[in-house]
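Mods, move this if it's the wrong board.
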Amino acid sequence: MPPTRRTFLRAGTLALGGLTLPRVLAARPESPPDTAVILFWMWGGPSHFETFDPKPDAPEGIRGPFRPIRTPVPGVQVCELFPKIARQADRFALVRSLHHALPNHNDGSIEVLTGKTPPRPDPTSTNFSEHPDFGMVAAHLRSRGALPGYVGVPRVPFMVRPNYLGLTARGFDAGDPSVPAYAPPNLALAAALTQDRVSERNALRASLDGLRRQFGRTDALHEQALNLLTSPAVARAFDLSKESPKLRDRYGRHLWGQSCLLARRLVEAGTVVVTVDALAPKFNNDRYFSWDDHINPTTKWDLADAMRYRAPFMDEAVAALIDDLHDRGLERRVMVVCVGEFGRTPRVVRDAGTGVTGRDHWPQAYCALVSGGGSRGGTVIGATNARGEFPKERPLTPQDLLATLYQHLGIDPAHEFTDALGRPTPVLSSGTPISELLAT
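Not the wrong board. Structure tokens:
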């Protein structure tokens, strides 16, 4: 009996994140990845006071509930909640003068991740991007072969869309690697679809040249799609069991720890950009897995309580990642960036009835931690004023930080795409690489 159309389609459209694998692979150039970026995406807007720009000499209502601690770099201090990261200060730079003008989560995220200002800012934070983010751009221009060029762990930031780059640029959602017996969704062969069955179906496809032409699919793309599902290299990249229990413990057996470990495995194998997202779907109702530290007497959302709970996970994971990259000689090839969409207000708000504290959105000043990629460790770039309100030295924009990432990735920010209306659209319309980050 000849194979049915359904048999052919099931053989040829194995899904990757809801997309057919041939479509994901269709636009990939042949040049192999070299440099890579891991973004620890602190969605929600982390307070710069309670992370990497403490103000110990400010009045009590500004400096917040925590004290700064010293690092090995003279004069550089960070919040006491990050002792392991603090010990790595000679391996990272702090950018303390970032700023923009969008105080809402989605708009601020779009500005920081794409470098494009939303044309219609939305105070309800329901906007989605009209331009691809830097991971989508990088994957479109740089990735090749079977391994996804852009991976979000556990998912790609939700407010960004590939738009005119096409769905193939969206990125792959890897899921939560801290769960027992983790396997990435849609990359493993279905239980009933063994390697033998894939080979059998591949052979069946060989007799359907006319049908392939009808659907506009090439044999080469289907071969690549099958390679993704059957490639031992892809399977190894996502297989955390290949790591020693001791190293997994060092990263931390939690969402952020295992996400950072998986990110290292992926960039080592050839992925161009990996985002580690603060807000995992399973934690949508868990106040501590977003950095959105408003005062909220109803839910008793408290800045100090949330930071005490949340910070150790990041401290353990990011410190281990920086260490591990150096141990493996990847510190020049891989750039690690920890940043959110904005900072927090320079005054702590307290509810008189419950004692709950918080800070509101503040895009006028925020900071980033940058390690590796040839960046200068032990460096502080820019400064905010004494109250942490505005940059007072070396004001920098999200576009400047993105220009730095693109330079590291070997991507020309002036490169132009054609948008949905047929207009030429550059990767970035403004922004200059941050020279102080770049080693000579």
